């Protein structure tokens, strides 16, 4: 992705990340479709089925790559090729393209649930928040308007799904419930969906509030790019007031103050980055870095557990960023987004 593997400053890394994202967002093949083929009429090229999100190997990666581009363009326009980024976003985030994506979402309510849904909500909220700023570019307001129907579809689908789900999925990959709910909760204010925020908070309280003594010593599984335990804690800290969250974390992670279990606090070595599924572990290091830092911030500067969390976050961040030196498409098509999660303020 870049020959600068040890960058720890997002302003410096924005240019290489954006350049890779632009190339990936416009690369149609290889591609892994996520839809069920109901007949031969569904055998169409990715750019036909998904005119907004047909690059980056798969739909959800295309969606969060567009989030990455908007996020970087908004904050570091002088550090990247802004014209190239704008060109991709304007070409893809059009009213017509997003209407097709919205139709697909509503017609196939299981498509990309919940990971892809959550990233689309995050993308729409990022554009909406920027569009609401004084002096925001007209093109950003256009992107936000085009994304709004798709974001509403995601919100409506989530409201229909949560009561039926019954229980969360605690996997370390795309099906993970807690990670997606965290993104959806963050996005809800920007989308103007109070109902979505209330539903996510209620599900979080019901599903995760009673949890105690999480099996963190079992992490990671061999192909995780998310930590199930840290994703859950990172979601709960969004919902509970700080003192209450601190008490909840005592029960959920009783060994934290003593620095255990080591398996979730020490970075993971990746044996073969050319294997896309084993390479998930690079993303795991970056996801852990982001979650650990967020937990430390939620606990406050005076909590002794914060030092353990911050030290682990720094180690995970350094190990995860090493992967950015690689050039394999199976890593570059998605890993940049997780680098931003680990580095952003």
Can you walk through the features of this model?
- This protein has 16 helices and no strands.
- It has helices spanning 10-25, 46-49, 59-75, 82-92, 95-107, 115-131, 138-165, 177-191, 194-208, 228-239, 242-252, 262-265, 280-299, 305-322, 329-332, 335-343.
- It is mostly helical.
- The longest helix is centred in the middle third of the chain and has 28 residues, at 138-165.
- Residues 1-7 have low confidence and may be disordered.
- 62% of the residues lie in helices and 0% in strands.
- It starts with 9 loop residues before the first helix and ends with a helix.
- Pfam families: DUF2891.
- This is DUF2891 family protein.
- InterPro entries: DUF2891.
Concise account of the structure shown:
Helices cover 62% and strands 0% of the residues.
Task: Name the features.
single chain; 345 residues; mainly alpha
Query: Which structural class matches the secondary elements?
Result: mainly alpha
Query: What's the number of helices?
Result: 16
The chain-level mean pLDDT equals 95
The profile of the biggest β sheet is: none
> Which consecutive residue ranges, at least 5 long each, have pLDDT under 50?
1-7
Distance from N terminus to C terminus (CA atoms, Å) equals: 22 Å
Quaternary state reads single chain
Q: Taking Cα atoms only, what radius of gyration do you get, to the nearest Å?
A: 19 Å
């Amino acid at each position: 992705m870049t020959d600068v593997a040890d960058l720890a400053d997002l302003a410096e890394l924005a240019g290489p990340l954006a350049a890779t994202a632009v190339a990936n967002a416009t690369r149609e093949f290889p591609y892994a479709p996520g839809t069920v083929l109901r007949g031969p009429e569904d055998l169409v090229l990715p750019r036909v089925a998904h005119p907004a999100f047909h690059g980056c190997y798969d739909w959800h990666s295309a969606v969060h790559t567009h989030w990455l581009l908007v996020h970087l363009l908004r904050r570091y326009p002088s550090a990247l090729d802004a014209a190239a980024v704008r060109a991709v976003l304007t070409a893809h985030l059009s009213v017509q393209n997003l209407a097709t994506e919205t139709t697909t979402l509503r017609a196939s309510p299981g498509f990309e649930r919940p990971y892809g849904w959550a990233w689309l909500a995050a993308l729409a909220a990022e554009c909406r928040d920027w569009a609401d700023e004084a002096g925001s570019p007209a093109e950003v307001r256009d992107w936000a308007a085009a994304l709004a129907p798709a974001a509403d579809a995601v919100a409506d689908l989530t409201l229909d799904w949560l009561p039926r789900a019954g229980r969360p999925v605690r996997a370390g990959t795309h099906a993970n419930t807690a990670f997606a709910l965290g993104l959806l909760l963050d996005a809800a204010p920007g989308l103007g969906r109070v109902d979505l925020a209330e539903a996510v908070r209620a599900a979080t309280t019901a599903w995760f509030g009673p949890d105690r003594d999480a099996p963190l010593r079992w992490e990671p599984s061999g192909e995780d790019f998310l930590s199930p335990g840290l994703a859950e804690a990172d979601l709960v800290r969004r919902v509970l007031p700080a003192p209450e969250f601190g008490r909840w974390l005592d029960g959920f992670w009783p060994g934290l103050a003593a620095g255990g279990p080591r398996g979730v606090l020490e970075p993971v070595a990746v044996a073969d980055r050319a294997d896309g599924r084993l390479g998930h572990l690079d993303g795991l290091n970056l996801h852990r870095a982001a979650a650990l830092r967020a937990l430390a911030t939620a606990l406050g500067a005076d909590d002794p557990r914060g030092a353990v969390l911050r030290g682990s976050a720094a180690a995970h961040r350094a190990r995860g960023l090493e992967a950015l030196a690689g050039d394999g498409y199976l890593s570059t098509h998605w890993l940049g987004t997780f680098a931003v999660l680990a580095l952003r303020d």
